[in-house]
């Protein structure tokens, strides 16, 4: 084809003004899509729910903080609205079911952004937990709570935060007083202004909430250490074993699966970057083969030198199987820079939770997805035969009763 012929052909198909206009609009739109996509990807954002980017580098404009130092922040937690219609006798626990279908189990930190008004969760099990904690404090004393001298200011700051938050969120049970807080249900008053305090601040804080509590502090080596805590209902670990340990040592001494390979770097980056404005939450779960919330005696006596799943009886009756779930929140206190863990345990018979639609099938799939390391950590060998047979049967009964598996995602979302 000659140049003249090509020119004539192009002229013969010359677009109208309307076509040119549409063409230009489409090109501009395409350019915008590309630019937005590039910026979106560069910032590491996705369309998924907000989850902290654990390995995000520090902002260029910020001056690096010297390890072990903290410049007090003027941040103040937003006022919490009262929990709607909350009642210590009738408000049921949130039914956390933080397990996913297989075939693969992913070892991740699983952090999600937390709403400020959801920092502490209380329900109609409060009085039982309170009684259990009171008994533990009396019987075990400082084996399950303590505050290092260098952590005292952080522990007192935690007390101050609780004395502000609880009357806001649960006004039918807590009232703020000139010296602290009053529990109008248990008729207890807590003076947090006197010095010295009447008791260890972590023991005092523990009697206010259903959670176990732990405070981590950064030292000059850049590592975070467990220097204050009240661990009363942990089930599988003892504060006396972990007190004073570095964050990484706490996890490696507990044989947390794949901690070195998949969790340590991200966790350390997260702790160093955590600000008072950005609280997070995560959930986990275990199977327990005895009915003790405070200490799982099936893994051995609480005061034994070593405790492990090796002592647990194998394949006990299904009535001895319990679903143990934890909701953990993490936040940095603005004045002292201490990082607060709240660890709220939910404890229910397996025979109860299988009555919920989809739960037996999903839990069975999740347990089967555990790798060998996770299975050892969670004691799977001791209960898998009885538990999986039971879950499979209950799942079959639900399907035969008309349960539509395909609709599960329409009625639930993680971690429920």
TrEMBL record:
It holds the Pfam family HODM_asu-like. InterPro entries: HODM_asu-like (IPR021848). It comes from the Eukaryota. This is Mannosyl transferase.
């Amino acid at each position: 084809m000659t140049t003249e012929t090509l020119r004539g052909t192009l002229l013969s198909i010359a677009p109208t003004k309307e076509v040119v206009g549409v063409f230009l609009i489409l090109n501009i739109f395409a350019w915008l899509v590309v630019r937005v996509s590039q910026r979106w990807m560069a910032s590491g954002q996705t369309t998924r729910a907000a989850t902290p980017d654990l390995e995000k580098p520090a902002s260029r404009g910020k001056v690096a903080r010297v390890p072990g130092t903290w410049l007090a922040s003027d941040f103040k937690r937003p006022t919490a609205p009262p929990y709607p219609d909350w009642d210590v006798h009738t408000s049921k626990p949130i039914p956390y079911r933080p397990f996913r279908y297989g075939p693969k189990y992913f070892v991740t930190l699983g952090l999600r952004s937390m709403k400020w008004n959801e920092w502490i969760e209380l329900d109609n099990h409060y009085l039982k937990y309170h009684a259990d904690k009171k008994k533990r404090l009396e019987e075990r004393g400082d084996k399950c709570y303590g505050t290092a001298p260098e952590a005292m200011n952080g522990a007192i700051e935690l007390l101050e935060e609780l004395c502000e938050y609880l009357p806001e969120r649960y006004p039918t049970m807590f009232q703020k007083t000139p010296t602290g807080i009053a529990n109008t249900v248990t008729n207890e008053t807590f003076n947090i202004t006197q010095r010295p305090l009447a008791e260890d601040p972590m023991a005092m804080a523990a009697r206010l909430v259903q959670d176990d509590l732990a405070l981590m502090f950064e030292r000059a080596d850049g590592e975070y250490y467990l220097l204050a805590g009240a661990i009363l209902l942990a089930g599988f670990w003892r504060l006396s074993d972990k007190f004073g340990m570095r964050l990484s040592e706490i996890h490696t001494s507990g044989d947390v699966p794949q901690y070195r390979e998949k969790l340590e770097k991200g966790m350390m980056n997260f702790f160093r970057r955590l600000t008072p404005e950005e609280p997070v939450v995560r959930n986990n779960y275990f199977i327990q083969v005895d009915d003790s919330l405070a200490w799982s005696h099936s893994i051995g006596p609480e005061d034994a030198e070593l405790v492990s799943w090796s002592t647990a009886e194998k394949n006990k009756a299904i009535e001895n199987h319990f679903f143990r779930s934890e909701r953990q929140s993490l936040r940095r206190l603005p004045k002292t820079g201490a990082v607060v863990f709240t660890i709220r345990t939910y404890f229910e018979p397996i025979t109860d939770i299988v009555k919920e639609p989809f739960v037996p099938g999903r839990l069975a799939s999740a347990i089967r997805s555990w790798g060998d390391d996770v299975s050892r950590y969670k004691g799977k060998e001791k209960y898998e035969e009885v538990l999986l047979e039971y879950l499979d049967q209950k799942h079959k009964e639900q399907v035969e009763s008309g349960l539509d598996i395909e609709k599960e995602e329409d009625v639930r979302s993680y971690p429920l």
